[in-house]
Amino acid sequence: MLNHGPWLLKGAERVLPLLRRVPFSLQRLALEQTLKRCLAEPLADGEFELLRGRWLCLRIVDLDLTWYLTRHRDGLQIARRARADVTVRGNWREFLLLASREEDPDTLFFRRRLVIEGDTELGLALKNLIDSLDPEVLPPGLWRALQRAGKGLASEPGAQPG
Predict the structure, then answer these.
(1) Under a CB-based contact definition with an 8 Å cutoff, are residues 138 and 146 in contact?
(2) What integer best gives the mean pLDDT of the chain?
(3) Which of 77, 97, 111, 126 has its CA 20 to 30 A from that of 90?
(4) 5-15 and 140-154 are packed helices; what angle lies between their axes, rounded to 10 degrees?
């Protein structure tokens, strides 16, 4: 079977840095619509209520991207700036390992490859919530692409063991 992981990673290396050039209004629209679609069931079940009236800052350091998220009546709302209650920061590769489940979240945080700042209780609750989500809530094609890219990243020479 052909391994598309390295190919996906090479594409990501070229494309992801361009995201910072995308106007924020388009980033927000794409992110809000994607999250609304992908997390429809957990949102409907109230699993993200812990963010109502509170802000999570996601900072992808190596891409120079920052988004603020809160729970809004229609789903998750993205803002360019807000007063963050908690910040989770790291490089895109660590977020990919987290999303693809190729690396244990506790390992990523313990080794400080992903960092929680601010309200750590909220940050840990969010980490546990995300870790508890069934990957099947994602569209199958997206989940397969995440898995392939994560496996490719985890198998790269010099990759840190989980």
Answers:
(1) yes
(2) 87
(3) 77
(4) 90
Question: What pLDDT does residue 51 have?
Answer: 96
Q: Note down the domain range covering 69.
A: 5-153
Taking CA atoms, 77 is separated from 25, 29, 30, 32, 92, in Å, by 12, 10, 11, 6, 21
Q: Which amino acid is present at 83?
A: R
CATH number where 55 lies: 3.30.1050.10
Q: Report the DSSP beta bridge partners of residue 145.
A: none
Nearest one of 62, 57, 50, 131 to 94, comparing CA atoms = 62
> What pLDDT score was predicted for residue 1?
44
| Model pTM score | 0.85
Q: What share of the chain is helix, strand, coil (3-state, %, to 5)?
A: 55, 20, 25
pLDDT of residue 17: 81
Identify the pLDDT of residue 18: 84
> Residue 73: what are its φ and ψ, rounded to 5°?
-60, -30
Closest listed residue to residue 96, CA positions, set 149, 162, 134: 149
Instruction: Name residue 92's amino acid.
Output: W
Is residue 76 in a domain?
Answer: yes
- Mean pLDDT over 17-45 rounds to 91
